[in-house]
Amino acid sequence: MLDKPYVIHYRRPYRCLFLVTLVLVIAMVAAWYWSHQWRLQQTENLTALQGQYEQLLTENQNLVEKNQTLMTELQSINQLQAIQQATDSQLQTELEAVQDELIQLNKELLFYQNITQGKVSSELQVRELHLRQNTDDPSSFHYRLVITQGKKIAKAIRGKVALTLQIKNAEQTSSRELNEHALNIRHVQVLEGTLKLTENEQPISIHVALKQGTKKLAERTFEWDATPSP
Predict the structure, then answer these.
(1) What's the pLDDT score for residue 12?
(2) What pTM did the predictor assign?
(3) What is the secondary structure of 40-68 as a DSSP string?
């Protein structure tokens, strides 16, 4: 029986090296391609985001300009409204003043008519007290005091008019002096002024005293009855 011939196989180191190199090249190409595509995609995304950002900036600028325009218009409207309110308030005050003056003139005319007809008391007296709340300050009140006397006198009666406010504060009743006016009357004298209530004061009445030196000529107490502001 013949023996099998022995075959010598030579090693091929370059073939393995070629395969390894080929795999590395393919991997590098694939990695480069994937990286290139990823960068392209990121560039496209960044470009889109930049476009959106610029669009938002433009819209925001437009909104800011519109807001400034609206604020300017609102300020103009508020100014016009304030002017209108001030004008209305002034006209209302002037109208009330004219109406009060007309009422007062009618009262004085009636009083003089009554004097001439002998229908009015000849005694010096505190005839009327009117109170009206201030429109701009609810704690402030305008008052008008009417003093009369019906005697035929050659000289005016002089002296002073003292007003005292009776108040209730923290369950206690007290009083405080108000304005003092000069008394100078022949037949009718009208005195006007303003009084202001402090916090927590509850007015009860106003006492009016006509004095000549230490002598008290006349006095009267009026219950608090103020006309509210319109």
Answers:
(1) 59
(2) 0.52
(3) HHHHHHHHHHHHHHHHHHHHHHHHHHHHH
